Amino acid sequence: MNARNDLLFDKIELRHPLPTDGDDLDRLLASTPLLDGNSVQCTLLQCSHFAKTSVAAFVDNDLVGFVSAYCPPSEPHTLFVWQVVVAPHWREHGLGKHMLHWLVDQPYSVHCTRMVTAIAIKNTVSWSLFDSFARDIGAIPIKSFVTPMIRNQHRPPKEYLLRIAPLPNCPELVGDHLEDLRANPSHVPAMRRWLD
């Protein structure tokens, strides 16, 4: 992180979202046409049910960034990142990564051993974000194709499922993560610059 960004981040308040942040989140998502909009119900879930595993970034009470995440019931030690959104005028300053670092340091996330997200193959912005985050924490990123609900050889997968582990709270799990890697050799053909 450079000094210029550190000065910018001094202006930012990071906190868990509140149900009253829903309208601001809708407006922020509308400013990012590359992201799918959310229903009112989804926004309410992000700002209430999943508030402890999500983060909202404010500057002068203006919502400029948001990361929605949750721990899947069947994988309580996984922090699944659903969306990362940053206001247009705050992009390219590292705010997305700043929010991810803040999130994994929060009490509700300390039991999480890995971060998982789904990224479209051509979404270079998201690949760069999570690549940089993984480097920062010294983690090993593993990617595999998202398995479609209905297999169709004429419609190849469009997204990867990316796993980043171990998170900073669990450095002792790096060996287990490599064992998981070795136990899933079917992912090897999908390798490029990411381990899998």
Rg, rounded, reads 17 Å
Strands of the widest sheet, in order across it, are 1-2-3-4-5-7-6
Element pattern in H and E: HEHHEEEHEHEEH
Largest sheet: 7 strands, mixed
Classify the beta-strand content into a percent band: 15-25%
Counting helices, strands and paired strands, the structural category is alpha+beta
Mean pLDDT, all residues: 81
Assembly type of the shown chains? single chain
- Count of strand segments: 7
What general outline do the C-alpha atoms trace? globular
Uncertain parts: 181-196
Report, as a whole number of angstroms, the end-to-end distance. Answer: 28 Å
Range of helix content: 25-40%
Number of helices: 6
Description of the structure:
There is one protein chain. The protein has 196 residues and is an alpha+beta fold. It has helices at residues 3-9, 22-30, 40-47, 95-104, 124-137, 174-182; strands at residues 13-15, 55-59, 62-70, 78-86, 114-120, 140-145, 159-165. The longest helix is centred in the middle third of the chain and has 14 residues, at 124-137. The protein is globular, with a radius of gyration of 17 Å. It starts with a helix and ends in a 14-residue tail after the last helix.
